[in-house]
Structures are given as C-alpha cells and as structure tokens.
Amino acid sequence: MLPTRKVPLVRQPPMQEPLPFDPKIVQQGLSELHIYPTRQGGGLMQIEVTMSFGLQPGWITEIERSVVEYYTGDQSNSGQQANNIAEYLERKLGGFWSVMIVDDPGIAAFTVSRKPIYAMIQVNGGEGILISSSGIPAGGPSGISIGSPFRQPPHMG
C-alpha cells in the first residue's frame, strides 16, 4: 500500500453578499439620480446617466450595477476598475466594451460621437465613466454581430 498524504483543504473566501440593488431615485429638475449603498465604508454612491445612445432595455441597470460593484473613486487603480467594469459587461451583455474614467464627463462627449452604443455616467456629481461598445453583441436584435472582424463576441446566453 502506498503512503497517503493528507492535503489540507483550501478554503475559498466567503462570497460577498450581493448589494441590495434597489436605488433610491431622486428627481432634480430634468435629472434623475440613482443612489446606491456601496461596499466602501458603507457609504452611498450617486449615479446619473448624463447621456446615452443605442442601449437595449435593461442595459443601464447592468451598467449601474457594474459601476456600484467595481468603481471606488481611487485614481491610483482606475485602470483596474475600468477593466473590471468592462469584463462584467462583457459577461452580462456580450460583445466588447470599453470603459474610460474621466475627471469631467463633458470632456468625453466628442469621443462617443463615433460609437453606436454608449453611456456617460456621472458618479457623486464629479468624475465621469464613459462606457461604450462598438456594436451589437451576438444574439442581439438582428441576430448578427457588428464590430471587429478579428474577434467574435461571445454568444449571449
């Protein structure tokens, strides 16, 4: 009989409870602010969609959910935050998504004029997050994929 060796069990960190995703909605003139609880110190995050185009119903909800989950406002790792938001949207919505965190949401207005799908999110009345996609994900409204000929988006499922 071969000697056996006990291998210690590797414990996975506990899954974080999902944040309650029922925003408090506040009307300010023509603006609609969505206020969410955050993981960072139990604070609140105020999100306003300042402009959007080409989004399917329900996509704004997923975009806001990704911002609440991954955006911290810490500029030292804003690249990682943007990457996490993009990967979340690619998993949930399909296609390929670009995320850019900017100091002023008005600055990126020209950038999005060439994208068929985009949203500009203003967080806590300050920084903006530009979220855009180059086309309709596979399985979208027409059943075809528009975008890069080199990479096929994953099928939505």
| Poorly predicted runs | 9-15, 137-157
H-E order: EEEHHEHEE
Instruction: Based on Cα principal axes, name the global outline.
Output: globular
Number of strands: 6
Distance from N terminus to C terminus (CA atoms, Å) equals 48 Å
Bin the strand percentage. Answer: 25-35%
Radius of gyration: 19 Å
Helical content stands at 10-25%
Biggest sheet details: 6 strands, antiparallel
* Structural class estimated from helices and strands: alpha+beta
- Mean pLDDT equals 75
Give the strand line-up of the largest sheet. 1-2-3-5-6-4
State the helix count.
Answer: 3
Please explain how this structure is put together:
There is one protein chain. With 157 residues, the chain is α+β, with helices and mostly antiparallel strands. It has a domain of 80 residues. The chain has three helices and six strands; from the N terminus they run βββααβαββ. The protein has a six-stranded antiparallel beta sheet. It is globular and about 35 Å long. The C terminus is likely disordered.
Indicate the topology.
Elements: E1 24-28, E2 31-37, E3 44-53, H1 59-70, H2 78-93, E4 97-102, H3 109-112, E5 117-123, E6 128-133
Antiparallel strand pairs: 1-2, 2-3, 3-5, 4-6, 5-6
Produce a short descriptive summary.
This protein has 157 residues and is α+β, with helices and mostly antiparallel strands. It contains 3 helices and 6 strands; from the N terminus they run βββααβαββ.
